[in-house]
């Protein structure tokens, strides 16, 4: 555990809670892509199956349980509790174009050809592109609420901090996981355009427009 | 042999 890893995890946690609270307090999921949230629920489910097979630390177990719980709670709020406010017409990204190639790639390029490891790899690849339906939705409607931009910023910051964590771990522990690193770089790059807009526009104008 | 990869990150 180093400072980048910890702040990355906390940034990730902040993003998840910001979104959950935003939907809960406003009683609305307008502007939020339910598809991205389903993808994140799939990401956490397939990645944290090791909760059943190995124990790493209390911190690790607690965070995994919180992430999974919040992901399903978010999906529940969007598709059940506040379904009437869900803007399905604008959430039109074709997720099969992500899930199918990512599934194929995880079977082809993985650390070990075993069910759990393939599912872990699938979750890493899927996470790197899971935000695309949300970004697509924002580009389609041309705007996002300020709180939604805070969510996206924390979510992007998390993977960027993980990149620094991997640099740290490579130098000080000789550790590197090529699959996680390449997917993490892809994931971070997808947020770059958003980061730029967030810093130059998001802080000063609202509602936020692309 | 079975390779068990442990992933310690979230």
Q: TL;DR?
A:
The complex is a heterodimer of chains A (210) and B (10). Chain A is an all-alpha fold. Chain A has helices at 3-26, 34-47, 58-81, 96-108, 115-129, 132-141, 146-173, 178-202; strands spanning 143-144, 208-209.
Characterise the protein shown here.
The complex is a heterodimer of chains A (210) and B (10). By secondary structure, chain A is mostly helical. Chain A contains 8 helices and 2 strands. Chain A has helices at residues 3-26, 34-47, 58-81, 96-108, 115-129, 132-141, 146-173, 178-202, and strands spanning 143-144, 208-209. The mean pLDDT of chain B is 73. By secondary structure, chain B is mostly loops.
**Into which percent range does the helicity of residues of chain A fall?**
over 70%
What's the overall geometry of chain A? Answer: globular
Model regions low in confidence, pLDDT < 50 over at least 5 residues of chain A:
none
Described by strand count, sense and barrel closure, the largest sheet of chain B is: none
Mean pLDDT of chain A: 95
Span between termini of chain A: 37 Å
How many strand elements of chain A?
2
What is the topology, as strand order, of the major beta sheet of chain A?
1-2
Structural class of chain B: little secondary structure
Roughly what fraction of the amino acids of chain A lie in strands? under 5%
Low-confidence stretches of chain B: none
- Mean pLDDT score of chain B, rounded? 73
What is the subunit arrangement here? heterodimer
The largest sheet of chain A is:
2 strands, antiparallel
Shape summary of chain B: rod-shaped
Largest inter-chain contact set = A-B, 21 and 9 residues
Any idea what the radius of gyration of chain B is? 9 Å
Radius of gyration of chain A: 17 Å
The count of DSSP E runs of length 2 or more, i.e. the number of strands of chain B, is 0
Number of helices of chain A: 8
* N-to-C order of helices and strands of chain A: HHHHHHEHHE
Question: Secondary-structure blueprint of this entry?
Answer:
The complex is a heterodimer of chains A (210) and B (10).
Chain A: H1 3-26, H2 34-47, H3 58-81, H4 96-108, H5 115-129, H6 132-141, E1 143-144, H7 146-173, H8 178-202, E2 208-209
Antiparallel strand pairs in A: 1-2
Helix pairs in contact in A: 1-3, 1-7, 2-3, 2-5, 4-5, 5-8, 7-8
Chain B: no helix or strand
